[in-house]
Amino acid sequence: MAIFERRQPAATVDRSGPTALHTQISDTIRATIGSGAWPVGHRLPAEPELAVDLKVSRGTLRRALSTLVDEGLLTQSPGKGTYVIAVPTAPRAEGELRGIAEDFARQGLRLTTTVLRAELDVPDTAVSTVLHVLADEPVVCLTRVRSTDSTPIALLNNYVRADLAPGLEKLDLVSRTLFELLEVHFGLALAFARRDFAARAATAEVAQHLAVAVGAPVLHMTQTAYLADGRPIEHSEVWIASDEVHVSMVLERPQKFEVAL
């Protein structure tokens, strides 16, 4: 399959490592689904083709697929193939899904919000793909700055599916959080999100809004939030002043371990 070849999933298979091959394959496919590259309804390549792409035996592949079927991510129909029926849920140990303002509120701190942009616009291809919308379909585009004690701490660019939250750009985005509007005003059931963090050098635009020097280290976060039915609802890019905010999490050690075969 062309998409799978471009993503080069075979590169994630480590035959000398301690993790069983079938576990590595299921992890690779699970990540592909979670990234949005294989959305709900997507048909996987035929087993012989997928086994060749991944450079594993069909027996190893079938064991990996069976794991994902048991997890409820895939379904297999004789004569029709294997289909994605759900996206993976966020691991419980990563904590609750809360926005920056909600996290600060739990610490007794109140953030102020400056809305720089709130309008319908067509996003770039990457955002359209993540949100599962057509290439020319507009979404709600938001740009905001979060501050505390007059100190800017985060620059947020949010992209929200307009078909699921029509008119969002016209609502109060200063005193109400985005998640609050999605859940209370639109009655949407947010279920989980996937976040990635990376260190970045502040661009001129980011430096201006965060009151830092150009090239200063900032924390860059990307997030995609999903509804309970697995549909993506929001994608965001957030630049955080690393000298003002740090990120911490509590992780749990799994109680069951699989012996590598």
In short:
With 261 residues, the protein is of the alpha+beta class. The chain has helices at 2-7, 21-34, 47-54, 58-70, 100-106, 125-131, 178-185, 204-210; strands at residues 74-77, 81-84, 112-121, 139-148, 151-160, 190-201, 217-227, 232-241.
What would your notes on this structure say?
A hairpin with a 3-residue loop joins strand 1 and strand 2 (81-84). The protein starts with a helix and ends in a 20-residue tail after the last strand. It is α+β, with helices and mostly antiparallel strands. The protein folds into 2 domains: 2-84, Orthogonal Bundle (Arc Repressor Mutant, subunit A); 92-241, Chorismate lyase, CATH 3.40.1410.10. It has 8 helices and 8 strands; from the N terminus they run ααααββαβαββαβαββ. The chain is globular, with a radius of gyration of 21 Å. Strands 3-4-5-8-7-6 form a 6-stranded antiparallel β-sheet.
Describe the structure using short key phrases.
single chain; 261 residues; Arc Repressor Mutant, subunit A; alpha+beta; 8 helices; Chorismate lyase; 2 domains; disordered N terminus
